[in-house]
Inverse folding.
C-alpha cells in the first residue's frame, strides 16, 4: 500500500514575526512537521495562509490524502470559502489532522459544531501524555507516558463532542488534564485532533510526537476512493 | 422535579398552503406535538417561522428548557442570526429535539458539522421502529417494534456523526434501514433527533410516537442551571 | 418520581481488622455511603460479604433499584453463584455502581470482559477530579475540579472497554491520569464506575463525592420495570 | 506491511453430520472462509473443535495475528480453559472475528459481558446489509446494500454492549433490523462481529462477504507487538 500523500498547512506568521519562534522553527512549523515525514518516505507538500487562496485550491486538495493543519492567531483571516472547500473535501474522504491551537480554527469548529473552548496557561510546564487506547494504530510504539519537559497547558473542560475514540489524555504540572488525542469521522473523512505542539516549544522535534504524527497520517488516510460532494445540503443521499 | 418547559417550533407553511396537510394537522404540526404534551402537564409554548425573529428571541429561549424543531421546505428562510442564537442556547444547556425533515435544518447541520444527507422516497410505506437501547429512558414503555402503517422512507447512509447513543433503528417496507433515534451532547446541551413524522401522515397522533416525544423532552431537559456563552470562540474555557 | 431504593454492599473486613480504617469509617464504609443517602430521603439497606449468601439473595436484589458495590481484598471470597445472580439482575435492569477497588471485583470484570487492571500507588497524594461531560446528570452541581487532598493513586492504562460515557478524569500529584467516572449499559442495566474512595482516606465524607453518588444512583435507577433473565444464553431474544 | 497470519476456527460438526450442509460447504465452513483468503495471499491455518485442545494451543495462537471463529450448536463443548486461553491472547493483541452464530460462543459472551441473545427465524429470507460507516476500512469497496438472497434472520434486540463502531445494519424481508457488523476493543485486541453466514446458505461464497472478511482481518490485525497477560487479575497494570 503506497504511503499517503500529505499536505501540511501552516498559518506561518509567528515564525516570520517573532525571533523566539523562528529560533525554534527556523523554516516554519510546517517544515518541522513536513521534514521528518518526508524522511520516512511520505510525499509531502506544504501550504500557508498568505499564499493565494491560502494555498488550498481544489487541485491542491485533490492531490492530498491527508491534510495537517496548524494555526493559532489568524484563524479569522482564513476565508470562509476556503474553509467550506476544505470541509467538502473532508466529507468526501480527505483525512484531516488538526494540531494544537488549531482547536479554534474555523475548519475544526465547523466540523465539530461546538466552541472547542478550553482552559490554557503558558507557563513552561511539564506535560505527560498517557495512552488510554493502547491497541489503536495511532498509539503504536508510543511510550506511556510521553514526557514533554516544557509546554503550554491546555485543560478541561474542552468543549468538543464526545470523541469517536479517545487515545491520549495529558496531565500538566499544575494538575490539569486534557483529552489531547481524539478522533472523529465526518462523512467519509477521518479527523484526528492532537494537542501537543506550540510555537514557543520544540515539541515537533520530539521523536515520540513525530511518531504519533506518522501513525496519525496513516490512520487518517482514506481507505478507498474519495467522493465529491456536489451540493450541500444535497437533495438526496450522496454516498450511494 | 418540575416538568421541563417546552417550546415547539414549526415552519408552519405546509399546513397553510396544502389542504391535504391541513386535513391531517388542522391546527399545525406544532399543535399536534404540543397538545398531548400539555395534556400530560408540561408547560408548552409554540413559535413559528413567520413570526418576528421566527418567534425565537433570547427571552423566549430563556423561558424554555427544551426546544422541539420541525421544519421541511423553508430551512433557508431561517435567518443565520437566529440559528446562531439557538446554537448558543443549546451550548449553554437548552435541550433540543429535532424532528423528521429537520435533519436538513440549519441548526441541526450546524451542531453536527455534517451534511445530514439521507435517502428518501415518499411511497406510503410501513415503517417499523426497533429499540436497540432498551434500558434508555427515551425507550421506556415503547413496544418493539413500533408500527407506523404509512410513512415516508428515510434510509441510510445518513450522513451524521457517530451518535453518542443509538436508540432506535427503523426499517421500511422497501428494505431500507435508518438510524432514526439518536442522541448527541453539544456543550451543556442534549440533542435528540427522531425521524418519524411527516406532514402527510398522522404520525404525531400515534400514541407510541407521543410517548417517545414525552420521554425525549424529559431526557433532554438540562440537569442544572443554564450557562450563557458570551463569545464564540471564547478566549478561554467558559464552563468553569 | 419516587426515589430509587438503594442497596449498599461492602466487603466489610478492613474496618473490623484494621484500627486505622475503623477510625475513618467506624460504622463501616457501607454506612458512610448509606447514611448521607438516607438523610436525603433514599430508602437504603446494606449487605456485607460475611452474611449468608453475602446478603444478596434474589429477594434482597429484587427489593433494590440500584446496588452500590465496595470491595477490595476479598474479591475471591465472593461466590461465583452470587456474582452470576447479581449479573442476571443487572441485565434485567438493576442499576450498579462499582466503587474504587471494586474495579477488580468479579462482578465488574464479568460485566466488562476485561482485566480492569490499572496502576496504583498509595502515597497520600492529591487527586483532582475533572468533569469532561458537564451536561451529564451525574456531573450536576459538581465543581471543576473536585479536590481530594489525600488519596491512593489509580492510573492509566486502565484496562476497561471504551466507556459509553466518560464523565470524570482524575489527575494525581505524581502526574498520572485516570478515567475515574465512566458509564456502561449491560442488558437493561446501567453501570457507573467511580474510582475515588479508599479505606484509608475519608473520601466518602467529602461533600462533592457524596453528591456524585447521589447523582449516580438517580442516573442508574431503571427507567421502567425490571425483566427476569430466565436462561443464559437464552434460546431467543428475551427483551421482547 | 506483511499480510496478517490468519487462523480460522470452526466447530465443524454440521458439515460432517448433515448432508445438506456438506453440500453447501463440502470442505467445511473453515475452508470456505480460509480458501479465498489464501488466494489473496494471506497465510491461513485452520483448527476445529474436535482436535486436541480444539486446535488452539498457546503455540498455535501465538502463530496467528487474527482468529476467525465459527460455532453454532456445540458452544458448550468448548472447554473453559481454552476459552480463557483465547481471551488472554485477545487481551494481549490477537485480533478476533466472530461470525454468525458465534454470538452465543463462550468467547464472545465472555469478552462482552452480556447474554448476546437475539431474535431469529430460519425462513430463507432476503437480507440487505447497509453500510452506516462508509469511511471505515472494513466497509471499503462494499456496495450499499449488499444483497443476500436467502438467509436466516437475526433481529434486534441484540443484547450486546454499545459497539465501539457500528459499521453494518441488516434488514430482513420480515421487517427486522440487526446490528450485524460491530467492533470492540478489549485490552490490546480488536474484535469484529459479523453476522451474515449460516451453515445452510452459501453466504461465505458471496464476493461481498468475502471482501468484508478480507477487510476485517486487515483491520483486526494488531498494530504492534503482542503482550502476554501473566496473571488475571494482575496485581498492577500490565500495559506499561
Amino acid at each position: 500500500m503506497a504511503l499517503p500523500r500529505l499536505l501540511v498547512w501552516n498559518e506561518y506568521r509567528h515564525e516570520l514575526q517573532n525571533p523566539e519562534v523562528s529560533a525554534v522553527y527556523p523554516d516554519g512549523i510546517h517544515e518541522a512537521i513536513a521534514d521528518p515525514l518526508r524522511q520516512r518516505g511520505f510525499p509531502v507538500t506544504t501550504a500557508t495562509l498568505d499564499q493565494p487562496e491560502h494555498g488550498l485550491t481544489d487541485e491542491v486538495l485533490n492531490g492530498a490524502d491527508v491534510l495537517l493543519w496548524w494555526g493559532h492567531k489568524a484563524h479569522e483571516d482564513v476565508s470562509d470559502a476556503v474553509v467550506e472547500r476544505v470541509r467538502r473535501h473532508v466529507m468526501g474522504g480527505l483525512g484531516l489532522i488538526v494540531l494544537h491551537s488549531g482547536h479554534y480554527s474555523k475548519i475544526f469548529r465547523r466540523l465539530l459544531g461546538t466552541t472547542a473552548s478550553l482552559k490554557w496557561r503558558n507557563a513552561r510546564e511539564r506535560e505527560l501524555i498517557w495512552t488510554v487506547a493502547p491497541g489503536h494504530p495511532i498509539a503504536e510504539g508510543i511510550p506511556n507516558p510521553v514526557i514533554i519537559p516544557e509546554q503550554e497547558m491546555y485543560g478541561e473542560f474542552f468543549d468538543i463532542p464526545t470523541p469517536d475514540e479517545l487515545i491520549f489524555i495529558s496531565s500538566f504540572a499544575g494538575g490539569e488534564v486534557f483529552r489531547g488525542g481524539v478522533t472523529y469521522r465526518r462523512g467519509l473523512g477521518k479527523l484526528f485532533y492532537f494537542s501537543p505542539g506550540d510555537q514557543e516549544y520544540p515539541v515537533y522535534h520530539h521523536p515520540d510526537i513525530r511518531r504519533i504524527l506518522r501513525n496519525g497520517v496513516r490512520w487518517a488516510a482514506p481507505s478507498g476512493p474519495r467522493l465529491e460532494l456536489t451540493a450541500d445540503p444535497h437533495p438526496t443521499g450522496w454516498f450511494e
Chain A touches chain C through 24 residues (CB under 8 Å). The first helix of chain A runs from residue 14 to 17.
